[in-house]
Fold each of these.
Amino acid sequence: GAGVSQSPSNKVTEKGKDVELRCDPISGHTALYWYRQSLGQGLEFLIYFQGNSAPDKSGLPSDRFSAERTGGSVSTLTIQRTQQEDSAVYLCASSRVAGEQFFGPGTRLTVL
Amino acid sequence: GNSVTQMEGPVTLSEEAFLTINCTYTATGYPSLFWYVQYPGEGLQLLLKATKADDKGSNKGFEATYRKETTSFHLEKGSVQVSDSAVYFCARIQGAQKLVFGQGTRLTINP
């Protein structure tokens, strides 16, 4: 079946604008994760959804970042009032409960 | 704290050379440990894993042994190929399921 897909693959935006990044997990995977890969910080965890449980938001760097997962499937990561330090590759992964995490190709975000 | 430390790169080797990429971790308890690989232009993918002390993970000729005495999970391969050129990430599980990654090591294999 299809892997994790993310859109857009690339996003260029101006400082101060809001952006939305989308993740389509593998069908049947109940867990979904967002990570960020940047030059300065490496690969870091942002947020984790598991089924209908409250998400683990402990990795979100500021209140400008939020994410939701509708119907237990597609997830959207929203960054409000983007800053240049938000420039990074945003990775989504999904898994079965306690299973291997499968990563999507990422969205490269550039904030000018 | 809970962290993962990898040897700094970049690492450049000749084909058929022996590879070691060091990885150490700090943690309470014995978390599952992983090596992920990111080939040029591709997404992150799991290379191997070990879920308890003394386990050895292996895949594609790569191996890593979970050493609780030295809190290490070094990646090794006896004879590297040009196709092994990639960025390698050591990682551990923290909490329920989130991954904590090392900083990554870029490996280049020359023919």
Note: Chain A has no helices and ten strands.
Amino acid sequence: NAGVTQTPKFQVLKTGQSMTLQCAQDMNHEYMSWYRQDPGMGLRLIHYSVGAGITDQGEVPNGYNVSRSTTEDFPLRLLSAAPSQTSVYFCASRVEGGLETQYFGPGTRLLVL
Amino acid sequence: EDKVVQSPLSLVVHEGDTVTLNCSYEVTNFRSLLWYKQEKKAPTFLFMLTSSGIEKKSGRLSSILDKKELFSILNITATQTGDSAVYLCAPTQGGSEKLVFGKGTKLTVNP
């Protein structure tokens, strides 16, 4: 199993540009989440999904969209990038009820100029 | 409002020292407390604590939870340079998918 994969590893955007961060898992996990981590901060939940076709907002959802058309994929879209969205983004997946066994992807480092 | 406070925020020690990292929390419908280690990449799971006073141990690392006083500690004995990392705690809540992470404690172990 590849586990949780994220692409790209690093991206530079200009303010106002849009892009999609990709996340995929091959463990057949129902639950997937997106977190952002800023320097000196813990992880903050952006959006999460409890299954294909079902998504919900986390702690800091503004400026981000998600969709879950398949169990495997959970892309995160930045509609109009802002410098405040400069961060490291982690995708995670787990089975239902398994917060303690959440698998994290390697992260995407995003710089918005 | 849910709150998680970790202390100290930063700690520098020498190899062989013993360290204690603290995590205090205020969350509704508390279910468990998770500890993670984060090096230069994604967090890796260390412990899950659900009951007060029962120590979880893994090698030189151990952790305990006090549900009455709403805190947990993570101990690392005989520290090694490989223990250098950010240690994060996160309480989980019943009926919620959200993890509320603390800001972390950055541990640096010098040879």
Note: The two ends of chain B are 41 Å apart (CA to CA).
